Fold this sequence. Notes:
222 residues, alpha+beta, NADH Oxidase, five-stranded antiparallel beta sheet, two-stranded antiparallel ribbon, 8 helices, 7 strands, 40% helix, 18% strand, elongated
Amino acid sequence: MELLPVSKAEAARYMGVKGEPDSAVSGLLDRAEKQVREKVRPKYVYLETDVSFTDRGVILGAMTEPLTGKDITRHLKGCSKAVLLAATLSQEADKLIRQAAVTDMAYSLALDCICSAAIEQVCDRAEEEIFSEHPAAYRTWRFSPGYGDLPITLQRSFLLALNAQRRIGLTVTDSSLLIPSKSVTALIGISERPVEKGGKGCAVCTMKDSCAYRLSGRICKN
């Protein structure tokens, strides 16, 4: 998959810019977007699986570990199937950010934020491609480990179910961080009936009062 033009407005928001970025920031983002699109080749994998609900939590046919928490149970209400998705910008994205940090922290930040916007684009496009090939009557939005009260420790089980290390080189650390860092795992519920799409974002997240992202002025969208 080749990257399409990356949203520099979204990247600027990740940088903490309010309103229109000034010429200096715009220049950094233009340069970063060009380099990322030249160097990075994203990859993704997915798997459709059955969904069932038990006292232990939500059980996916592709995983032995249950999905626990009220948020994921509510999110998948009415769904009989789901798609597991993993996407990554590859090690090249991490390499670009790391190399720039040695000599130019501002440019490294611009690269980091462009990559954050880019992986969101990749997930959007992956979802479009998946459901154009395998139409679903109704589906939920993407829900990732670590969002709300869904444990981030489920990352390892997600990757094992997708065989993501072999297929796209995606691994996870002991502290449940994805490597390469500009990567996403997510779950999309599928239903035969209209699904009740709940609120999205910080306002409805059960972790909003203790979230490290919010305390730093960012969000966990990626």
